[in-house]
Amino acid sequence: MTTQKKAISLSVNGISYEASIEPRMTLADLLRGELVLTGTHVGCEHGVCGACTVLLDGRAVRACLMLAVQADGASLTTVEGLETDGELHPIQQAFIEEHGLQCGFCTPGFLLTVHELLENSPDPSDDEVRDALGGQICRCTGYQAILRSVRLAATRLRDAQAAASSQGS
Ligand code: FES
Ligand code: FES
To answer: Going by CA atoms, what residue is nearest to atom 3 of ligand 1?
Structure first.
């Protein structure tokens, strides 16, 4: 039996896409298989590890748990969309400098979760960071380096914000 395909349109990293897909396709499979954005990693495929986390209209979601049709009309950011003009995002740079990654499998999910956290809470306490990252699993780092990476990223983003505000005033 063939399933009727559904037409969807969405924006990913600022680029508009239209696709005709099986209604049962997950968002992770759309991103990786159809759009070849393979920076979104798939680990557990049932919402536990956080490796597949992307931003949907600014909110961190598990791409393995969402159907692609649910993203119709949405604006998505994947790890590929974090850099600007070839420059790494300050969160990415902080993870490199503070050794917040080793094998890197979990890293895209961490980066996007931290992005959401720092948008909502630019100066989070360590407990807030731990809470926000509670759903992300890393098998390599032991998490302390990730915590340091988030602190450094938060400081840099606040400094950049302060510099931009003083230039604008
Ligand atoms: S692959 Fe989606 S949460 Fe693990
Ligand atoms: S860096 Fe290897 S799983 Fe996190």
So the answer is: 47
Task: Name which of 57, 51, 64 is nearest 11 in CA terms.
Answer: 57
Query: For 26-77, what is each residue's pLDDT tens digit?
Result: 999 999 999 999 999 999 999 999 999 999 999 999 999 999 999 999 999 9
Mean pLDDT of the 82-105 span: 97
Q: What would the pLDDT profile of 99-116 be if each residue is shown by its tens digit?
A: 999 999 999 999 999 999
Measured from the alpha carbon of residue 142, the closest ligand is 2
Instruction: For residue 7, report the distance from its CA to the centre of ligand 2, in Å.
Output: 36
Question: Do 21 and 63 belong together in one domain?
Answer: yes
> What total of structural domains would you count in the chain?
2
Residue nearest to atom 4 of ligand 2 (CA): 138
Between the CA of 167 and the centroid of ligand 1 the distance, in Å, is: 42
The alpha carbon of 101 and the centre of ligand 2 are apart by a number of angstroms equal to: 6
**Structural domain span for residue 35:** 6-81
CATH code of residue 113: 1.10.150.120
**Whether residue 36 sits in one domain with residue 103:** no
Q: Which residues line ligand 2 (CB under 6 A)?
A: 101-107, 138-141
